[in-house]
Amino acid sequence: MCSALTKLVWPVMAVLVLATLAAAECEISGTPTPSATLEPTHATTPEPTPTRTAVPPTPTSTPLPGSVRGVSLSPKSYETDDFLAFWDLAAQVGNSVRWAGDLQALGPLDEGPEATFQISLQYDLIPLIEGNVFVASTGELLRPLDHTAHAEYIEDITAFVEEYKPPYLGIGVEINILQEHNPEAFAAFVELYADAAKVVRAISPDTQLYVTFQLERLRGLRGGLFGVPEALPGIPDPLQPS
Questions:
Q1: Could you tell me the fold of the domain covering 70-225?
Q2: Which of 68, 134, 190, 228 sits most deeply, having the most CB atoms within 10 A of its CB?
Q3: pTM reported for the whole predicted model
Q4: Looking at the predicted structure, is the pLDDT value of residue 226 above 90?
């Protein structure tokens, strides 16, 4: 996904920036306002192409003051029309867009989180950037949480926070799954989070650092929202070895 996003996002950003500098009025998506209909005569001059007028999306609902509500980055595709349509819709349904992926992607060589952050600001949305150290669907680590990975993660977090001073930064997604699946790795993650918190607070004290939890599993459900209580016998747990 990141490679597709990288190919598309920066041309999109360039268009947005150039449009702003040139004060060009255009509507990112939608139908231009039709011109008035004139009775045709032989002397009629052809009507010029109507100018597209920038019309901000009308929110369909308003989050409570001080709350953050929105959607994850999930366009129909990364083709230009679908990608821009996603941002239009995101601006209508909430006040934030969330990117979640490999924590190492926060480093300077990856453009997924950075692009999401900057485009969110273009649409007056709050960017929620969340990095993870394991695959939430399986509980498997993306890479061993050894001293090398620890140092690289801290370096990537430092680079991102120094550059963007994000309002929110998530480190650890559905982290209770890691605790269930690999307690030893979870202990290493706790150390990583503590060191990351020191770095973030030193660089950007206003950044709110957080982790997320898998709610259904906290409630004793297996298989997600439509799972069943774990107390019932004979129910397989997809995250536990058979």
A1: TIM Barrel (3.20.20)
A2: 134
A3: 0.68
A4: no
